[in-house]
Amino acid sequence: MSADNMSQWHNPTKNNTGPSCPVERKDVEKNAIYELDLGCVGKIDKLVLRKQSLFVQKYSVCPDEFPLIYPGEEFFFLSKMLHLTRNDIWALNVSGIITNNPLEQFFFSSSFSQQVSLMKTGFLSHVYHSAPCPKPILHWLFQLMSSNLNTSRDSFKTLWEISISTLITSEHAGQNMWSPSLKDIDSVLQNLGASLFAMYPLEKLDTKSRCTFMRYALLHQKKYSRNSMYSHLLVTNLNNIMKFLTLCALECPHGLSDQELLILITLLCRISLDVNLKHEPKEDLRQLLLILLEKITDWLVQMPKLCISLSQISSHHHNLLSVVQMIPDTTNKAQQMKKQLSLLIIAKLMSKDTGPLLWVENLQLPFICELLKDMKPSSLKLYLEQRLEAADPEKEITQRELDWEACYLCHTLLKLANIVVAAKKISLNKWIYLQKLCIQLNRHIINNIRENPVIMYRSKLKDLATYNYIKWKDMLFEDPRKMQYSWVQFTDYQDPGNEGVGVGGTPKESLETPKE
């Protein structure tokens, strides 16, 4: 073998630049295929046939499930809070205050920043540990609870310590303890950024307040945007305000009148719907609402007014459901109000004229039984379609969206109906209506929902309807002494238009005792 041949044999890269080399030929083919893929991606996406897109759409899964959290309302605005002038709002008014010692005189003669610094060091808690505190100072501390985070915490701590000292040292603690008025509470909420229109409907405001709101609306037309720092400040300050109001409601026997209590309860329920508070626990607010309900003296007169007022605080059905669920049911008044409010909201959402039926105890279950026929998604779909056409004839909505809205509304109505039925103490004369409720629920809602493997929200709605059906059926057999009575009535009852069919779609013959 020659030297040239040997060199070619030991140098594999020499004279291998042509296409005859297998290694390089593979690399060229890979690069060509890669460039072809990059150039054809956009063209392939544009050339998808309509038949293929319909095939994909047919077997796609609909992810639109019902939201677990209510949508909320816009109540507090960061732009409004930043627009306020701090010194004018939170300055201590010392006019008419008579000083009793040099420490008070020193505090009153100090500047605003010095007064805040003294308050943070515990100066006021020490001065008024055993001596009565002037009301302007208590009012000033309550207003400071709507300021920045550090100042608001210290003002709440100082106000709490002074109030507890008053309860311990005073002979008539409840009468001597200071309690904020409804006007003071409104002022604090507005300092936190609450809109006047969100707090009270525009038609209920006087002319001066209405002009002020319209002027503010023209100056601040910027879309509301959430801010994490503002949300944290808002939640912390509101929790402290609720805690102090709870203390006042417990210890001050004659703080607010019945009319003022109705206004305050409605205002607190409006606050709970704010978008900044959707994901926050509201235990302090729930406890305050429970105490305020117990303080209403003329309950039979004020309870219908309160239910009507609460049913109008929002137009969205999930928001109204959250208000009902927020009210604790640990007392008789709270249970009665939750039941009445749920009935009123159901009638409002379905546009039913109830008249005095809602307030008559024996007519409430028959009323729910009649409404179950119209709660099925197919009926609600027609109802929503008519409302949308009347509100905006030019707006187009797909059948898929309309079906989702109808099932979403049905989901809320079933939860409200369960609150009404579960609050009832079933007696013998009410058992027949509970039996009818079970059969109507099974016939008109459970059997009316057509499940689809790609539409998951229908399955969720059917699960809730089945849960209500099982829960209501179990209520028929809670008392063993009435089990025989309930079973006879339950198997003998036939739904009109569904003869021969028992509960759960089972033939009636299968419910009977087999012959020996």
What do you see in this structure?
Among the domains are: 72-241, no CATH class; 351-516. The protein contains 27 helices and no strands. With 516 residues, the chain is an all-alpha fold. Helix 9 (135-144) packs antiparallel against helix 10 (149-169). It starts with a helix and ends in a 5-residue tail after the last helix. It has helices at residues 3-10, 22-46, 50-58, 78-83, 86-90, 102-108, 112-120, 123-127, 135-144, 149-169, 173-176, 182-191, 196-199, 207-219, 228-251, 258-272, 283-295, 299-310, 317-326, 332-349, 364-371, 377-391, 399-422, 428-446, 456-475, 483-492, 508-511.
Chart the SSEs and their pairings.
Elements lengths: L2 H8 L11 H25 L3 H9 L19 H6 L2 H5 L11 H7 L3 H9 L2 H5 L7 H10 L4 H21 L3 H4 L5 H10 L4 H4 L7 H13 L8 H24 L6 H15 L10 H13 L3 H12 L6 H10 L5 H18 L14 H8 L5 H15 L7 H24 L5 H19 L9 H20 L7 H10 L15 H4 L5
How would you describe this structure in keywords?
0% strand; 27 helices; disordered C terminus; mainly alpha; disordered N terminus; 516 residues
Globally, the shape reads elongated
Strand content: under 5%
Number of strands: 0
Q: How large, in whole angstroms, is the Cα Rg?
A: 34 Å
Q: What is the percent of helical residues? A: 55-70%
Low-confidence stretches: 1-20, 32-41, 202-225, 486-516
The protein's oligomeric status is single chain
The count of helical stretches stands at 27
Helix and strand string, N-terminal first?
HHHHHHHHHHHHHHHHHHHHHHHHHHH
End-to-end Cα distance: 108 Å
Q: What structural class results from the helix and strand content?
A: mainly alpha
Largest sheet entry: none
Overall mean pLDDT:
77
